[in-house]
Amino acid sequence: MSDTVQLQTVSLPVLGMTCAGCASSVQSILGAQQGVETAEVNYATQQVKVQYQPEIIQPEQFQVALQAVGYDVILDALNGKEKQAEVHESNYSALKTNTILAGILTLPVVIASMFLMDVPYVSFYMLVLTTPVLFVFGKNFFINAFKQARHSRANMDSLVALSTGISYLFSVFNTFYPKFWEDKGIDPHVYYEAAAVVIVFIMLGKLLEENAKSNTSSAIKKLIGLQPKTMFLITENGEEKIEIAAVKAGDLLLVRPGDKIPVDGLVYEGSSYVDESMISGEPVAILKESGAHVFAGTINQKGSFKFYAEKVGAATLLAQIIQLVQDAQGSKAPVQKLVDKIAGIFVPVVLFIAICTLGAWLLFGGEYKLSQGLMAMVTVLVIACPCALGLATPTAIMVGIGKGAENGILIKDAQALETGYKVDTVVLDKTGTLTQGKPVVIGMQWADEKHSLLGGVLLAMEQQSEHPLAEAMVTYFKTQGAGSSVISSFKSITGIGVEAVFEGETYFAGSDKILSSGQFSLPAKIKDLINDYQQQAKTVIYFTSSSQVLAVLAIADQLKEGSKEAVLQMKQQGITVYMLTGDNTFTAAAIAAEAGISHYKAAVLPSEKADFIKGLQDQGKIVAMIGDGINDSQALAQADLSIAMGKGSDIAMDVARLTLISSDLRQIPKALKLSQATVKTIRQNLFWAFIYNLIGIPLAAGILYPLNGFLLNPMIAGAAMALSSVSVVGNSLRLKLLSLK
After folding, report:
1. Catalytic pick from 275, 340, 413, 429?
2. CATH code linked to domain 409-436+560-661
3. pLDDT reported for residue 43
4. pLDDT of 428 over the 80 cut
5. Which of 128, 329, 462, 609 is the most core-located residue (most Cβ within 10 A)?
6. Closest CA to 396 of 384, 388, 408
7. Quick one: what percent of the chain has pLDDT higher than 90?
């Protein structure tokens, strides 16, 4: 392709995809269009990214091409995700209703097949109940199978449609023309229950999958919700309220107290503290003055300021976080995708065996070669039913999720359980994960005990202060039972501290900058204590009169109970532990040393956290990321296994595949053990599902007939199919007995 050709890239929500095979079809269809350079379908997020030549083809033509084969794309760039979510919600609701109704109709069919087959006309009653199960509530299996067949593809839907369809048609024939078999001395058995049960169980599995998709999209919606929809634009005529879509780089915007900052920009006038925990993860708000950068989605505190918009729309840091989360989530494939791939090979193999079975009987059979050949062919198709395959993953996942919930571990999907036992590297966020996530006063020293009577003055000053650390000091003094004094002439000195007058004396509280305003004497014990606090990376607050230092306080974010023990347990399991934080190097070093962590990195931004994890993955590491904040969402999405703290942000919990309800890091070893047991169970289920087919299909075809005259009855094949499902469910239920201690 010539370098002069200008390519455009567009990401569009896709409708109608039900499995990985559908995603492959959409990708191949769009990739084959003239003018399309590349097409990449993201099945997890139900999106397709297309790189194309706009002078040759337009997105409207993508839609036409996909609609011709039963799929669709949403071209509305502004509301595409919302419309897709509405369609998904509608489909999920319909699937849930269909599963329940199909189950209600299937139950009497199963009972009749087991206990009432001698009742007159029972086959007709079963026909009436089974028909809507297949062709009303389960019609999508047949529709999707037809779509796949048109593109010479096969997936789980193909297998379901084929086996249930053949069983149903064979049963209908035997219901209306039983004499065809009776005249040949063969019992005309029906298999309505096999067809109906398969439909219900597979629909239940798809219901679980759709629910997982809904949870994934909710994380993106909440991230998008961080950005306000309107803002105040400063014009020559004053303030004007405008939609966020209308803002342009260079516009002067006003941020009022409590507002979310709409776009990335540079402060022009005014000052305020801004909560940037979604970016840095640190609980202390940051002072923003003229020349400081602000970011979309962060929250202004009590002040107000004007700023120039620098990055808008998709260029903002928040928009980039959203995109990175989408990309990282979409790069992960669920366990069921493997089953779909296997089914794509399994279906033509079963068809081939069934046809060969009929052909072999016609060539080498005896007196009843046609009837026995047909019976053997149907038996092959019935016994090759994918019920056990369809149940292998969801049943183990359901039991594993329940077991995790009993132990305070919320597991979102199979991907977490599939990956957890392979983890060899754990990356921990600091604030809110290793630590409490809230600054507290951990020490205070009066220069002289007589000064302690002034505690009420300091409390009164901090009660009026807007500084983020003031709350920690207020809480501390209240727990000490201190009462508040009456102060006057209170004022806040930006970037330094606060000042007030009590009984004619002026008092100050704040950082060490207040010491620069005069000559202050520091007793030796205070000097030594300050040095100790600073070496431990504690924040030191000074309380002074106009002539002397009265007291110093140390404020820090403390380790959670159990953090050190959890790190030790992970090390004993052979796991390498890293700590990442947006905090400074001194604080990071102190916390890492206290927790027993040798590897750490400080002053990292969200994208840098994700890049760090990717670097570990490039080295062949299987990485688990544990975090609690919005700032961790990119890294959580990038990690092989993402774990969120239950007391953290909703965004982190939605992006993460695993959530520790108690926020106790000691739950991580339990989670990894549960992962190992569940994956083992899934593999056992899949193994027995395939072994069942490997043994059952040759028996159904009549491989033993030349040796001992044994020919498997289709009724026995149906029972074997049911037994395979029961064995898979029973094996999964063993997880309930697992001890995680």
Report:
1. 429
2. 3.40.50.1000
3. 62
4. yes
5. 609
6. 388
7. 12
The confidence band for 557, taking pLDDT boundaries of 50, 70 and 90, is confident
Give me the pLDDT at residue 216, please. 43
Residue 251: other Cβ atoms inside 10 A: 19
Tokens of 600: 């750490």
Amino acid 699: pLDDT? 85
Q: Are 680 and 406 a contacting pair, CB within 8 Å?
A: no
Task: Please say whether the structural domain 440-556 has been given the CATH code 3.40.1110.10.
Answer: yes
Q: Give the fold, CATH level 3, of 8-78.
A: Alpha-Beta Plaits (3.30.70)
Contact criterion met (CB below 8 Å) for 62 and 173:
no
Angle subtended by helix axes 192-224 and 317-330, to nearest 10: 160
* Mean pLDDT taken over the chain: 80
Could you tell me the maximum CA-CA distance found in the chain, to the nearest angstrom? 119
Extended beta strands in 236-350, E state: 238-243, 252-255, 264-275, 286-288, 293-294, 299-300, 304-311
Domain range 230-315, CATH class: mainly beta
Question: 266 forms bridges with which residues in the sheet?
Answer: 293, 308
What is the sign of the dihedral through the CA atoms of 643, 645, 646 and 649?
A: negative
How far, in Å, are 197, 343, 353, 687, 705 from residue 694 at the CA level? Answer: 22, 14, 12, 10, 17
Kindly report which listed range (154-158, 377-381, 424-428, 693-697) carries the lowest average pLDDT score. 154-158
SS3 per residue for 524-587: HHHHHHHHHHHHCCCEEEEEEECCEEEEEEEEECCECCCHHHHHHHHHHCCCEEEEECCCCHHH
Spell out the residues 6+ positions from residue 691 whose beta carbon is closer than 8 angstroms to its own.
Answer: none
Residues 6+ positions from 475 with CB-CB distance below 8 Å: 440, 441
**Residues 273-325: tens digit of each pLDDT:** 888 766 655 566 788 888 888 988 888 887 889 999 998 877 777 776 666 55
Q: Report the pLDDT value the prediction gives residue 308, as an integer from 0 to 100.
A: 93
